[in-house]
Amino acid sequence: MEQFLFYILAAVAVIATIFAITEKHAVHAIVYLVTSFFALAVVFYLLGAPLVAVFEVIIYAGAIMVLFLFVIMMLDLGHPDKAARPGARDWWPALVLGMIIAGAVIALAANRPAAVTGGVPVIGVREFGRTLFRKYGIAVEIISMQLLFALVGALYLGRRRALPPSPASLPEGEGCRRPSEGSPGCREESG
């Protein structure tokens, strides 16, 4: 049963990823990518790594997808053609893949898998945190600084795009509507 669910969910993840890559509408591509991430989370759970499954849902299906949607909204990529409205045939792949994932989760909940055996150690949250911060503390700090720089850069770029250009930054004469304004960057014409 577990092996059958594994193959089904692996196929769902691959198909959803292919749809995410080939989809022209950016928001639909993100829906397919979230479907793929949820399928991978259930696969991780099947493999006896519930902590990794939770990380997959929280970090990838949650935070990264919100970041992707934020970028799509900032760059205004959400509507390639405003006239076309999605029909039922556009949503059937996501609906079918979502139903397969839901069925797999229900089957897992009904038939709780036995503990994974074979010498695979189960690592809890506490052990994971200790290993992460004791052994790889410098790498964690470097990654956190990179995320901070990316956040500050995104805020700077978003704010710069939202502010109108100042008259001093425009080429001479472009910021003036009337010659008598006398605003910075404008020349008063005599005559």
The second-level CATH architecture of the largest domain is: Up-down Bundle
Q: Superfamily at the CATH H level of the largest domain?
A: NADH-ubiquinone/plastoquinone oxidoreductase chain 6, subunit NuoJ
Shape: flat
Strand residues, percent? under 5%
Helix and strand run: HHHHHH
Radius of gyration: 26 Å
Structural class: mainly alpha
Please tally the β strands and state the result.
0
Bin the helical content: 55-70%
Let me know the average pLDDT: 77
Supply the number of structural domains: 2
Q: How would you describe this structure in keywords?
A:
191 residues; mainly alpha; Four Helix Bundle (Hemerythrin (Met), subunit A); 2 domains; 6 helices; 67% helix
Structural account:
The protein is an all-alpha fold and 191 residues long. The protein folds into 2 domains: 117 residues, NADH-ubiquinone/plastoquinone oxidoreductase chain 6, subunit NuoJ (Four Helix Bundle (Hemerythrin (Met), subunit A)), CATH 1.20.120; 42 residues. The protein has 6 helices and no strands. Helix 1 runs antiparallel to helix 2, helix 1 runs antiparallel to helix 4 and helix 2 packs antiparallel against helix 3. The model has no long low-confidence stretch (mean pLDDT 77).
